[in-house]
Amino acid sequence: MRKTYVLLALIAAAPVGGLALADCAQTGCEKGDLNGDCLIDLSDLAGFLGAFGATTGDAAYLADADFDDSGAIELSDLAGALAVFGRDCGPFIDPNEPNDATGTLTAYRPQFGTGYAPYLRTAVADGDEEDAERGPGIRINNPGDADPAGEDDLIEVTVSVSPPGAPLRLRRSANSLSVWTTRGKTPGTQVAFMSDEAALPGQTTLWVEWSAAAHGQATLSLGKPSGETLDSLRFHTFRSIVTALGGEDQVPTTPAVANSGTYVVAEALYQRGFDVLQFDEDNVSPNGSGAVYDAIVDAIQHRQVSEVAIYGYSHGGGSTYDLAERLDVNRAGIGMFEIRFTSYADSVENDSDIDVQQELRRPLSVLYHLNHYQHGTLLEDFFLDGGPVPNSNPPPTGLDVETTPWGANSTHFTVDDYVQVRSAIELDLGGVMAP
Amino acid sequence: MRNLTTTKFVAAILGVAVLVAPIAIAQTESPASGSQLRDRVSAAIQTMGDISTEIQAVTKEFGADVVAREVVFAIAHAATERDRAAARAAFAALKLDARQKVVAMIPILYDAGDKTARLARSIAQETEDRSASRGPDFTTYRAILEDDTREDRPLPENLVRLMYESDPGVALLTMMRAHQVRDPAELRVILWAERAVDENLWRWRHGFLPNTTAMPEAQAQLRILADHEAWWARYFVAETMRQSPALREPAVIEALKRDDNAMVRAAAERID
Hints:
The complex is a heterodimer. Chain A is an alpha/beta fold.
């Protein structure tokens, strides 16, 4: 009893401190924390004393002091106040200006079907996040797009916030960006933007969709309620698609093996922001039909892709020709597009799996063609080789790598793996088309 | 049998690599830049009397068909790119013409392991000279089928299936001709049906018609051929409906699944 008098005396002497504009966001301080600073201390008890005896409707009534929700602040509530006295519910963050909060967004390169294979999950480098070409690319996600295995046109974005739970905001520069908390766009999991701003959801992984039918760029930002931006991602829609075709019996792997130069180049292009499909060349039939053709047509018809690149090694080069020919012949049924880039690495016609004819035809209707070849010998590679192709780069017919110091000892089995060949494909492709 | 044959062929393939070394050196010293690979391989092999003799000896003992299939098996299961290239060179050394290649592949077009069967189909289809700019050329297939038809022998089911899967329309016309149909009225029934369906496919291909929409005339002609007395005409209906979902009619498919001809039934069963 004596202690109670002492406490009340202290309470009377304590500054009330004013009421918070908002409640503490942490759990455990729902009642008793009258000033909302996430700490139940003497100032709160002073507030309690000020409200003591008040009932619902009185100006002095405070719901957070009415522990039993009886509508009156009385002795039974004092017991509740004493029970939580001293409680620390965690750091206080002023929702109007959480100056101590920080956060980052990380975007990843696009997925294929059920996941990232044949690529590793690849984050867009911090320095590229707002670059118009090397930044996060995103596919237009129109209805009818033939996603091979579920929804694969959403871009994964991870969110890192410190301290956890800080009430940061998401902002977007255009409503063409939709944000979901599930990859499969489960109903009820779309983030609701008001005037292109939304509270940051509790999930640490978000999925970003380009839901407009037209191309464009848009920024997704993480920021404080005051408007200060902490991190931004600049998304650009993919206007192009790149197709990489390996040689006979080369198949895409995760990661690419070193002696499959075609797929190594694909990884490099993927990392720098292109939408790159990797295929076994057997997915292209001699008349160009098959899964690769279907994938390119789907991109043109449903994702507004208008620029195509195809490159291949050995039989993959022969398939590059076949694929380009079919795309050209069937233009009227496909839509508007250009094949801006093709490349052969020791290209061999692919009329069958045992075809050994050099592929010497320049792909039809292609703006820029790159060609590398070597000379086969019986002992080294059973005469397997490509050859000069008219109107190719380097002019006039491509590069005979055996005329270079680095490629003098090349064989059909190694020509696609030279860094000089791989770099030429990557740089020349990047020189004639953007992601 | 396979082990014995394979062993001999591995020996032959290895022999190629060993015995032609002098030729390879000569080629390296004076590369024939720009010439066609096949011509160079052919020229090289022609100068290798010992290897030709060895291959011919094995062929004489086991038969060209068997030897070709063994080489295909070796190509399909080669452990390295280099081994595969060597086996391909051995296949070239067999010097099979188009018909011999197809005949050799028929037994394994669908009935071998996946890799071997796929390779066998690829070799047979090379004779079709396919491209996006033109239809397949079934001249080689027709010669084989026509001979069997004239001799009243059962047709090789694998080859029929391959041809129809490759291009049902061209296959239909090939079968019509291989079966020596002479009555112009009968010919026109087939020709008109093929034309109607091809018109539908053409409109899909070039964007004149959504590929989910079928032309009534094409569907009508398919119904007519589904009741045609020739099994190879009914086969066309089954394979067309398998390849083009928009042209399917459940009642027709069910009827084809109960067809008198086993090949037609099997084709209908392959429809999803």
